[in-house]
Amino acid sequence: MAETDAKKSKKTKAVANKPPEPETVAEAKKRERAPGYWQLTDDEILLRSPAPEDEYKTSDSWRVFRIMGEFVGGFDELATITRGVTIFGSARTAEGDEMYEAARETARLLAESDYEIITGGGPGVMEAANRGAFEAGAVSVGCNIELPFEQMPNPFQTRSLSFKYFFVRKTMFIKYSNAYIIFPGGFGTMDELFEALTLIQTRKIRNFPVVLFGSQYWRGMLAWLTSTMLNEKMISPEDLSLIHLTDSPAEAVNFINRIFGPNNGEDVDAGSGTES
Fold this sequence. Notes:
globular, 276 residues, alpha/beta, 7-stranded parallel β-sheet
């Protein structure tokens, strides 16, 4: 009994000493820089190895129900998506940037070929893609993720979902996409790119189009894949054929159409454009 009371007292003390939630982004960033800081996320709690005194280890099995709920909710919400194309890219790309406008135009052209657009729901390239679909009157899906510092969903979504777990969200991207278009981005963009290539290579999913947009940005990575990874026989020549590189929104859409077929049966006009 005394041991139980001691544990309760320890837990109550920890809660009492917990600092208040930051009210502004500036406060949150300041706290992040403080020594010993680590903002727990649901993914981090689930995936870390349990320690002897870890209060979370006894609740991991119950956490499965929350995960299951996210899967069920995602499957129900996206069940009608049959011609989805997911567009990835940096959240840091600003409106007016060349890649922002290219993503917006690509999404618009895809929408006009009767595709539904899926993104991570955030700012930057994700916003541009949702915006292009939204302006074309098409389905514009955002699969948002809860992060330690909240990333606001962009306002151009006709269907908005929120996930706590990255792996559940990534399953939705894979399951409801007929193709990926990858614009310049950082670690998250690379993660989605190479996960798709791995799943295709290992035949865990069917071979669907993976389009890299922006030859200048991807040139160094593709050169390394060829000169080092391929040369060292870590991949096969056919693995490189899984990637299609382009600098044209129309060509990206036509490449996907050649595999899945546009509903209007015609190629997209490369001369069409979008107003900023």
